[in-house]
# Entry
Amino acid sequence: MFLDAHVADSNASLPEGINPIDVTFLIKCYLASLPEPLTTFELYNELKSARSSIHAMRNVLKKLPTVNYMTLELITALLLRVSQKSLLNKMDSRGLAMEMAPVIMWQKEQKPEFYRQYWNHLIKNASKRSTDSSPTYSAWDMLSEEGEDMDASSAIPLDDGTPVDFGAIDVVQRLIEQHNAIFTDANETVWR
# Structure
């Protein structure tokens, strides 16, 4: 339903009752659950080295598997749209890059385990509920219920002692700010 609305009208708002924070968290959980980041381990250092040049970044990104490239293009296009409304949502390209870089680009030893652990916790609790003959819940229901029980102060990934990868943040910020120049030969991603 939500996806169909956005395919029909790229300016459509979220349907009533859907929290944008939940949608964002689901995207982050999905990206963190991937066995390898969208940018791949192999291209990590190349991307960090290429971040000062649009042409160099475009050439490095062409080495990505097609599915990774397409997914990264769509996610950064979405982040660009969010950043363009930063006066309303208070999320500029730097803030978005700080939030999303850990799940888009990481080294082998820096996997974003927080999101995977949280998602596994949700799934484990959901399966317990279904074996208890309780009513079944959608992912939205699980997030809203479990999110209220979690201690938010300990759930902030940047507060867990993991070093912040400012190079990855810079790369993701560049991908957001220069999205159209990096991903398309035309100067604008067309939303259909």
